[in-house]
Structures are given as structure tokens and as C-alpha cells.
Amino acid sequence: MAEQATPGVLDRALAVLSCFSEDEPELSAGQLVERTGLASSTLHRLVAVLVDRGLLTRLPNRRLAVGARLWELGELSPLALRLRERAIPHLMRLYEVTGENVHLGVLDGPAERASVLYVGRVTGRRSIPTVSRAGGRGPLHTTGVGKALLSGCDDAWLQRYFGASPLLRETTHSIVDEHALRTDLAAGRARGYWSTREEMTLGNVSIAVALPSVDGLPPIALGVVVHLERADERLLSRLVQQAAKEIHSEIRSS
């Protein structure tokens, strides 16, 4: 019988894999030793196993990166199979009629450190630059999809969220006061969509809606990000709402 990994081994493997980020997708063995605190000999043995299993890959420059097997496993997640794959045609249509960045995000993590996890994104040459990417994360309080996701959380969850740590100010327009943000969330519920105006990036406006809940999936929100000068909120909100209804209908039956 094959030897089963102990929780300690799994923890160490996850510690290694968690060192990689969008800003640093490639790391040396020395950097992994420094960041994990593992002994060099332990790190090298663990890396050898992760490379052999395809969870890490060695690059020509002797640095390490996330391996294809890890990507393959991630593609089996319901976020990929049930949500993103079924939503992509609708994201494309929304992009075609707006020419703007389209984001599909879910609420991820416990309230104390929750964030938006972007599971889908469509952009083009006309679209303005944004900091989001599929597979990346963003704050809840300064993004349109984040506010849409926050709006569906109950008061006990929100109390833990606001009580965890002060909200970070991304720009001078960011709403970081609890009362002001709660008021803004309530305004979004009243009009049926949520928006940010230069709260994440100067010059950008985001408009988003929350999808009704779907069994087996986390809370979902859909949004567009546009330049302030092109932000026709009434038109864009209607387009996003329609796309959200179509996506919900598609994934509800899956």
C-alpha cells in the first residue's frame, strides 16, 4: 500500500505552492527556503516530489513555477466547469455590446479575510487597463463586483468583516468607513446594481450586479469596468443585469 501523506507534509507542500503569486510567478529554491522557513534539505526533497508529480515545473533558468498538473486539477473545480465555462459566451456578448472590461467574480474566504476571486474576464484593445485577472483577487469594498457580493452577506457576516481590520484606501475616493459603506450597499440594493467611481483606480467606474444564489457555488457577481468619461450607468446597468439573468439561468440548470 502506498504511503499516505501526513498533514504535516501537506501543510509544507501548500506553504511552498502558496509562495507563488501574480507578481512573482517564478521563484528560486533559495527564495522558497526563505519564505517557507523550511530547511534547505527538506525543501529540496519536497520540491523534487512536487516536480515529479507535475505540481511544480523547473524552468530553463533553474527557477520554479506552478506546474501543468496543478492547473489541470484547478480546471476541474465547479468554478471552472459549472460557472466559468457556461458563463463565457454571455461574458463575450456583454463585451461585444459594451467594448468594456467584463468581470465575473465570486466571494471567497471567511469574513475576516474575504475577497473577490475573479473566475472570468473578457477584455480587448479598447478596454481600459485594470488590475484584475482571471484567477486573481481583489478587495470587496472598492470594486463593483465586491460591493455586489457584500450586499448579499448577512449582518453577522458583515460584523466579522468590518471588525477584522481597517479597510484599505486604494484611492482618495475609496469608502473605508463602515457606516458609509453600509449606506452605499443599501443604495445599490434599492436600485438593483452597485457601482464604484474611482474607488479602486482613478478614472475608472465599475457597475455590477449580484446573481441569485446557486446550490454548490459561492455568491457570484458580474460587472463591467469603464472609463469615467464613457460611464453611462443606466445603459450599462441594464446590459449587466440582462447578462446576469442569462448566466444564472444557464448555471442553475447545470
UniProtKB/TrEMBL annotation:
It comes from Leucobacter manosquensis. Gene3D superfamilies: 3.30.450.40, Winged helix-like DNA-binding domain superfamily/Winged helix DNA-binding domain (1.10.10.10). Residues 7-68 form the HTH iclR-type domain. Residues 69-254 form the IclR-ED domain. This is IclR family transcriptional regulator. PROSITE patterns: HTH_ICLR, ICLR_ED. The keyword Chaperone does not apply. Keywords: DNA-binding, Transcription, Transcription regulation. SMART domains: HTH_ICLR (SM00346).
